[in-house]
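haha ok so turns out i had the wrong file open the whole time. this is the CORRECT one, sorry everyone. sequence first:
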Amino acid sequence: MDGGPRVPEQRRPGSVTVTEPEALRFGVLGPVRAWRGAEPLSTGSPQQRALLAALLLREGRTATAAELIDALWGPEPPSQALAAVRTYASRLRKVLDPGVLVSESGGYAIRGLGEGALDLAQAQELAAQAEKARAAGDLCRARELLNDALGRWDGEPLAGVPGPYAETQRVRLEEWRLGLLESRLDMDLEQGCHAEAVSELTALTAAHPLRERLRELLMLALYRSGRQAEALAVYADTRRLLSEELGVDPRPGLQELQQRILQADPALAEPSSPAVEPAVVAVRPAQLPASVPDFTGRASFVAELSEVLASASESPDAQGRVMAVSALAGIGGVGKTTLAVHVAHRARGAFPDGQLYVDLQGAGSRAAEPETVLGSFLRALGTADSAIPDSLEERSALYRSVLDGRRVLVLLDNAKDAAQVRPLLPGTEGCAALVTSRVRMLDLAGAHLVDLDVMSPDEALALFTKIVGEERVAAEREAALDVVAACGFLPLAIRIAASRLAARRTWTVSVLAAKLADERRRLDELQAGDLAVKATFELGYGQLEPAQARAFRLLGLADGPDISLAAAAAVLDLPGEETEDLLESLVDTSLLESAAPGRYRFHDLVRLYARACAERDEQPPGEREAAMSRLLDFYLGTAAQVYAMERPGDRLVDHLEPTEYPGLRFEDRHRAQDWLYAEATCLLACVRQSAEGSPLRRAIDLLWASVDLAESGANSKEYEAAATALRRAAQAAGDVRAEGRASVVLGNARLFSGVFDQAHRDAREAFQLAETADDPLPSCWAANVLGSTAFYQNRHEDAEGYFSQTIEKFRSCGDLAGTAAALCNLSRLHLATNRADTAVVLARQGTDIYQELGHTLRGANGRYAYGMALAKTGQHSSAAEQLEEALRVFRDSRQRLWEGMTLCRLAEVELDARKPGQAASNAEMALTVLRGIGGEWRRGHVLTVLGRALNGIGHSGRAQVCWQEALEIYENLNSAEAAEVRKLLTPVAAA
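then structure:
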């Protein structure tokens, strides 16, 4: 059937609209496409399709220009991003019908679509109908509907669409698709189709080894197909995988199924009756935050809001009973949340079915999504996870249905705007909602609006008195009035001043008043209130001591999400203790937050204000650049120390740009590793921020010295993006040396991520640039990458030439560690060309060099190559010892890429030693560890090995699935390994 996108403004319950022949249709469950009738429409470039997809998936809601820029480019948009968005929107308007793509409130929305216009909405509608059919006992119809829903997919959702928003949506849609598959497979088993389900479930469990529901269904299908032993083997594999990977046992349902299979429970032999969907269990949530015990004043507001809430809690027979909504607005720190929570607690008795609360984070850069909030609310109200739909509209409808007949109070705190609030309103009589926001919600229909101002002098004095004590204030009433006036009658500032006085029994009120009377020092004694209110920032910043103000300005320049004490000391060029005193004093003023011991962060809005102050006030202006240069030096110096500890004897640290500010020193390599991974996000942010001018070369070297972030897979995407940006900057600057180094860093990163064609191009450019710039070490690395990419692409003659050249170049540089790496790589090439004996010799030479250097991590790479070579000469026990020792080091060093590949090599050794069961376990673990890293070629290799292991334990069906997936990967890559996999598949197909 044809369905349509669910646009809340246009949908009518129970209505079905047939798509007109020439109506617009859109697809997102595959490539992003559009049609007018049967005629395909051009959706433009990938970025233009990304814009179209972002608007379609918002279901008629407006997306601001900032949101669209973030969706298309993430945190690093191009300088002309806004102009590009406008251009894409203009082009789409010319393609679509008039009035479909509308401009609204500085953003865009797609409106006026009929039902049947979006494949995702069709799938959602079909899935909802399937649930209804299943609940009614019509499993045949439910299965048909689910199959129809799944048929709406046409490959990967949003295929080829770039940007972080598209990637997030791809993950969400794939998760939903798997949930639909599980539901349909569950119904297959309920209808007795166990044998037919085994094959599909085998493939799914191979692709999603940690998804326990799939394993449970596979066990049940195998058991009902008379394959009890295989069913129990699936449980054993599952338990081992969960234990080794996650350190957990299978969930109770899976354990119970295993016991029932062991006991040959007769009830398992036949399909059960149609499962009843989990009922919504009536739960009484009580989520209100605690009310402050010293709540003061606001009597008129309390009475006004209480009266509105009372209108929702009148007797059922009362006329005009409605769902009540009150929206409080005011500046930050004025006490909106405090008042709302106080009123909500007073009204609890009128809402016996519970109270819901959420902080919508509307003042931050990423406000809470209504879909997420609704999911949390539904769970709090007793709705099972499996019963919570995916789309915003469906969640909102279910939420209103669950609240129907109940008397619940909902407190929506810190809302961004009315659009965020609307889906969260109960909408039924007997319920009520309190909303707080920094904006007046004039467009929230039917809401009772309340504007909250600062306290009156009497109320402010009363609050101050409650906290400090009647006796102390009564003796110095005039001084107390001076204090609350200095606080601007802002409740938060008054509470802070009073709390400080209450904690200092030797102070008088006059002492506090005198301290606050000096505007230059007021924030030394008093926090400034809500950090999102610019007037409060201005007041606070103007009262900082010069050293505090300088720290405030300069620390705001760094892009990272937070900053360590040591990094802050570098920015400020101060000793650690003095830096800590300054930062703690800024925490006391609430201009800075203590994220964790030794780490500090700005609120996003405070950071923007701090930067504006730096541009306006920092003298001389060059001090801003000097501060960021010191931070870059600190990161480069410390990263070089980490690199040197991980790779003793490696000459890279001797070829890095010199630094003026020192880095940290570490007692052992584990602490060095801890620092690198803890600082990864901040370090990469500093790299990106230093992509212009004189810091460029140091930024590239910092990325080079931090290669573990790419090699481990922990931050590979961010690392590669930073390397791309730096190379682009070097090209723009015409700096051949910098471009050569950036290219080798990028090529090395892409080698680790399995993008061999691009890695080869990068390395070739790097080699030529390094030779031109007479920069020897990058040419060594580039030659090594060229050899590695040629090896992976089965160009063995080229690879041997590159590796031989690499060995010569590293030796000429006196780089023993690099020489060892190249020897180990050449060993692997000899293995691939049937020269196992020389491969053993080469790998042993490389390993011996690493051992002489005391090179633990790279020594593990040597053992990896040595173990592979030993295995090919039939020395399986010795090979396993080498690989297991390498695996221990890789795990200890958090090198996930090498951990996964070593598990795969162990599986190969175990296959050669005729231990397919253990091989299957290690290959399964390798597949799990390498998920999302290493690239498709490596995944194809692991799947091939896993298929051989499964075939060895009699799971030929599962083996075929693995090999088929591997074949598809290799064919997509035009890889020679495809021929090997076809040979493996041939006997399976013939059988």
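The longest helix spans residues 164-190.
again sry for the mixup
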